[in-house]
Design a protein that fits this description.
Layout: H1 3-13, H2 15-33, H3 51-54, H4 61-68, H5 72-90, H6 92-102, H7 107-118, H8 125-136, H9 142-151, H10 161-188, H11 193-201, H12 206-231, H13 238-244, H14 250-253, H15 256-266, H16 270-298
Protein name: Protein LplB
Membrane topology: Multi-pass membrane protein
Pfam family, one: BPD_transp_1
């Protein structure tokens, strides 16, 4: 039997699985792989009227401009800090929340809790930003009015640069932490119940069962998601930052995502903004490769 015959035999045998996967495959081909051809724009002085083939090549000129831009240190620092705080404060929350939900024995109450923590994921970031403004505005904000009635002072949550990163992290936790528990709850459902039964026989407490059975059982999932998160270290999310940014807090709010919008869309610098995006992608690729290698070496868990 030839290799081609073997492939066609497997395709025929599992044809319905491949048909089911076809929409996802087409999505990635059309919206992920084909657009990668646009990377060439980063090395051109792209002109929409000349197209890809006739626009003049400038090599690494746009990358030189990026690295020598006076705003580059600020952009790099702000992006790294927000991503670092997300990893430090947001990343553990879905894990902890999943562990807590997993301990709930009343199935009706458990489903109610899961539904409640999932709902914020479906709320638009525009709505969340509006709620934030309503609550924290220095003039009419509910929280500031309460603070003023208690202390006689108000806090400039929305314009004071010191509060910006904290607001971003709190918004992210409130919106996405519940949704992030789905993967961990799925991993927890695969833990062998006999392990808990043996632990109970040995006199283990609930905390000891969690520490010695539950957490080690989902550690591979945690590591894989952590590696994937490192690959998006320079992706802080455009919409949230853009909605919360203003001229007063720009020194801590401007990140690569909003910078690409500013120079690429509002100023029409397509080649330069593509170079910035390619720089982010290269950094993410390097981080994934390095973290995957270290994880494979020390924990025997890896993406590939």
């Amino acid at each position: 039997m030839t290799a081609t015959t073997s492939i066609w035999k497997r395709l025929k045998k599992d044809k319905w699985l491949y048909i089911l996967a076809l929409p996802g495959i087409l999505y990635f081909i059309i919206f992920r792989y084909i657009p990668m051809f646009g990377i060439v724009v980063a090395f051109q002085d792209f002109n929409p009227f000349l197209g890809f083939w006739k626009s003049p090549w400038v090599g690494f000129e746009h990358f030189k401009t990026l690295f020598t831009d006076p705003d580059f240190p600020m952009l790099f620092r702000n992006t790294l800090l927000i991503s670092f705080y997300n990893i430090l404060f947001y990343f553990p929350v879905p894990i902890i929340l999943a562990l807590l939900i997993n301990e709930v024995r009343n199935q009706v109450y458990k489903r109610i809790v899961q539904t409640c923590v999932y709902v914020p994921h479906f709320v638009s970031m525009v709505v969340i930003a509006s709620i934030t403004y309503v609550l924290l505005s220095s003039e009419t904000g509910v929280i500031n009015n309460i603070l003023y009635s208690l202390t006689g002072k108000k806090i400039e949550f929305l314009t004071d640069p010191r509060w910006f990163r904290a607001l971003i992290i709190i918004q992210s936790i409130w919106k996405e932490a519940g949704w992030g528990t789905i993967i961990f709850l799925a991993a927890l459902s695969n833990v062998d119940p006999t392990l808990y039964e043996a632990a109970i026989v040995d006199g283990a407490t609930r905390w000891q069962q969690t520490w010695h059975i539950t957490i080690p059982s989902i550690m591979s999932t945690v590591i894989i998601l952590f590696i994937l998160r490192l690959g998006h270290l320079l992706d802080t999310g455009f919409e949230q930052i853009f909605l919360m940014k203003n001229p007063i807090n720009r020194s801590v709010a401007e990140v690569f995502d909003t910078y690409v919008y500013q120079v690429g869309v509002t100023q029409g610098a397509y080649s330069y903004s593509t170079a910035v995006g390619l720089f982010k992608s290269v950094v993410g690729l390097i981080l994934i490769q390095v973290s995957n290698y270290l994880s494979k070496k020390f924990t025997e868990t890896s993406l590939f």
